[in-house]
Structures are given as structure tokens and as C-alpha cells.
Amino acid sequence: MTPTPPPIPGQNPLCRTCGEGALIKRTKFRMSGPVVAIGFILLVPSALGMLFGALMLILTGTYSSHISASGEREIRVRLAQQEIPEPIIAEVASGKPVPGEQLTPLTYPQRAAVHDAQSSLSAQNVGAGMAVGFSLFVIVASFVGGLLGWAAYYAQASSRVCTMRSDCSSLLGEQT
Ligand SMILES: [Zn+2]
Fold first, then answer.
1. Partner residues linked to 14 by β-bridges
2. How far is the CA of 140 from the centre of ligand 1 (A)?
């Protein structure tokens, strides 16, 4: 490590407060070095994470609407093969519960087919919901990570300090 050379007044701007001292730039470490480094390192993956999460959300939306459309078709075909009445098929396909009195005239295999269709449909919805939840989690986590990284990085603010009077420095405030 090389020692920092003493500031030469001629090379630094004159203090505007007292007009005598020179202003030297001093970097304040409000956070410890590693925290700042981690913060800076965090910025890149968090930006990528937010982008990735948004992309995943779009893909999930497109994919699940595609899947549910084809799943609905498949359910309709399967139920129609069991010769289940159309009103019940429509209710199952739209995800609505089928009233018990509509199920009573059905045979056992027909009821089993209705039950299978309902559970596969709800499994699809749970899957899509989980994918959306995961995407949102990635976005929020990346955003929080980025925010923390940003905060840690910018907590290291540089200020100008007067060489003549120490009370000037406090008047100057912080400049980046
Ligand atoms: Zn001064």
C-alpha cells in the first residue's frame, strides 16, 4: 500500500466559505469497504434478476393460457368420450363445481372421469399460480437486492474538506 500524497493547495479549488483553504476531496466510508464492494457487485445480478423475473412472468402468462386452452380441450374430449352430458362438461371446463344432483344420474366411471378432470384442472391452476408466485418473488428479491446494493454503494459519498478551517467542511455539505 502506498501512502496518499499530501494535497497541494494549488491543485485543489479554493474554499468558497473562507476563501483561504483549499478543498480536498475526501471519500467518506460510511459503510465498510467490503459492504460497498458487495453492494456494487449486487447491482448487476439484481438488474438481471428483475429482467429475468419479468421475462418469466410474461412467459408464464403466455404458456399457462396456452396450456389451459389445450387442457380444456383435452378435458372436453375425455368427458365427451364418457358420454357425460354437455352442461356438466361445460361446468368442469370452466372450473365451476358441479352440483351433486347433476352427478347422481352418472355411472361410476363417469363420476371418476369428472373427478379426474377437476383435479387435473386444479393442478394446472396451482402450477401456474406457483410459477407466477416464483416470478414475482424473483422480481421483488432482485429489486430489494438492487436497492440494498445501491444504498451500500452510494453510502460511500465523497465530500470536499477545507484544509484551513475544519468548520468550513461542515458548511460545505456533501458533494458527489
Ligand atoms: Zn474553508
1. 22
2. 45
Q: What is the pLDDT of residues 7-49, one digit of tens each?
A: 554 567 888 888 888 888 776 666 677 777 777 777 888 888 8
What spacing in Å lies between the alpha carbon of 165 and ligand 1's midpoint?
Answer: 5
Is-contact 88 98, C-beta < 8 A? yes
What dihedral do alpha carbons 68, 71, 73, 75 form, nearest 10°? Answer: -130
How many CA atoms within 13 Å lie on the side-chain side of 37? Answer: 3
**pTM of full prediction above 0.85:** no
Taking the centre of ligand 1 as the mean of its atom positions, its distance from the CA of residue 32, in whole angstroms, is 28
* CA of 23 relative to ligand 1 center, distance in Å: 7
